[in-house]
Specification:
Number of helices: 14
Oligomer: single chain
Shape: globular
Radius of gyration: 25 Å
Strand order of the largest sheet: 10-13-14-9-8-15-16
Distance between the termini: 42 Å
Largest sheet: 7 strands, mixed
């Protein structure tokens, strides 16, 4: 912990470009590492791991000089002659604890924001994606001295030991449960935090929507990375008389993406569950839901030795089932029905604020009504997950789905300290209000309070 020297824009931009070039030079090695951890197809790794990072680096390089300039601030007339500005300075040393589901992107994304803000970084990748963790260590060790960027591999005990250190900021991506522990540890040192958590992100399909289009986009967003995505649609809400149409369209899209149901396990385009523990949890959630009356419309196939769970659609899921009480984080999609939007609001608002809320509708009035009656970290209309790759938008949840925003300027600002600077001339009007408080001084104070 401590002060970090003020690096100039040119130096920071050079570092960002080094990262970009190294990613491009070693992307085949990266693809192999991610495949070894998640069986993630090379094309999917490029879309979901590399593209968001390289896009954001371009955005940072393009705008960083402007962001770093001191911003003038208005000064009240009582301080006439003074000049005010806001300077964005490095916070210091940032600890980044990244997850296993997008092990490259969710580690390097916060890293480039921290570097753009002028900080030093300690990165702790997840032990559940060891191949990508080793790749990250090798990549960054070839670009930075350990005093600038250090990578610590290891299990939760390593993470716990790091959290005992007095970092200036902690950036954590993971579950709400672990997020609470991270925040408590950061509070011991009064470290600021960014928590990117999760929650049950609903996809609301209005009667006015194109059901086939909604089914295509939702199934893509849900089953990419085998559903192990914090912003994946967690469940669908659709008018009861459109249920059959949606299920049929979703089944067709699953087949279109991954092939016939009996062959999906052989598809080169479908990921695997990260480990046996996560596999057992998901299997148990589905079995409990079925025991409570849920119906498997598609999928429901489990192969423990391969950590394979087929894309699964569930209907008739009771709202009190465990699968509707916690984030699924796997390739299982409950489909709930409703009669009116009031029913939708009742379901969505009975749960903690979601990280993302998806709306499929054609009518602006309906969209406005849903936005006005729900809360979420982010919202996407007539698509899913794509907002994550837009560096012009702040990303993040609030309350149980997260604290703080990231990406683009929002990430740069979150990892910077806003330093207020006010320059006063030698003689100021305020000096007329200094003691002793004579009748004249009191009169001036009264006028100042009343009119200024």
């Amino acid at each position: 912990r401590g002060k970090v020297g003020q690096s100039g824009a040119g130096e920071r931009i050079a570092k960002l470009k080094r990262i970009r070039d190294a990613i491009n030079d070693r992307r085949e090695e990266l693809q192999q590492a991610v495949y070894a951890d998640l069986r993630k197809p090379a094309a999917e790794a490029m879309i979901s791991e590399v593209f968001p990072v390289t896009t954001e680096i371009k955005h940072l390089v393009r705008h960083l000089r402007g962001w770093m300039r001191p911003k003038p601030a208005r000064t009240p007339i009582v301080f006439i002659g003074a000049k005010s500005e806001i300077r964005l300075e490095p916070k210091g040393v940032v600890l980044i604890i990244s997850p296993w589901n997008f092990p490259f992107q969710l580690g390097v994304g916060p890293l480039i924001s921290a570097i753009a803000a002028g900080n030093c970084v300690v990165l702790k990748p997840s032990e559940f994606s060891p191949n990508t963790a080793r790749f990250l260590k090798s990549l960054l060790a070839g670009l930075f001295d350990e005093k600038e960027v250090a990578v610590f591999e290891g299990d939760h005990e390593v993470g716990k030991a790091l959290l005992e250190q007095p970092f200036n900021h902690v950036f954590f991506t993971g579950s709400t449960r672990v997020g609470r522990s991270v925040m408590a540890a950061a509070a011991e040192h009064l470290s600021s935090v960014t928590l990117e958590l999760g929650g049950k992100s609903p996809a609301i399909i209005d009667r006015s929507a194109n059901v086939a289009e909604a089914a295509k986009k939702i199934t893509w967003g849900k089953f990419i990375n085998a559903g192990q995505t914090c912003i994946a649609p967690d469940y669908v809400l659709i008018p009861d008389d459109q249920l059959a149409e949606f299920v049929s369209a979703a089944q067709a899209q699953i087949q279109n993406f991954f092939g016939e149901a009996v062959k999906i396990s052989q598809s080169p385009d479908y990921c695997r569950i990260i480990n046996e523990k996560m596999f057992a949890r998901l299997k148990n959630l589905v079995e409990e839901a079925v025991a409570q009356g849920a119906v498997i419309k598609t999928g429901g196939e489990f192969a423990e030795d391969d950590k394979y769970i087929s894309p699964t659609l569930l209907t008739g899921v009771p709202q009190n089932a465990a699968i509707m009480q916690e984030e699924i984080f796997g390739p299982v999609l409950p489909i709930l029905t409703y009669k009116s939007l009031d029913d939708v609001f009742g379901v969505v608002n009975s749960m903690p604020n979601p990280l993302v809320l998806y709306i499929f509708a054609r009518h602006r009035r309906v969209i406005s009504k849903i936005l006005a009656n729900t809360s979420a970290g982010d919202t996407v209309i007539n698509d899913v997950v794509v907002h994550f790759a837009n560096p012009n938008l702040p990303f993040g949840g609030f309350n149980q789905s997260g604290i703080g925003k990231s990406h683009g300027y929002a990430g740069f600002k979150a990892l910077s300290h806003e330093r207020a600077v006010m320059r006063q001339p030698r003689h100021t009007m305020l000096q007329l209000l200094y003691p002793p408080y004579t009748k004249f001084t009191k009169k001036l104070i009264d006028l100042t309070v009343k009119y200024f």
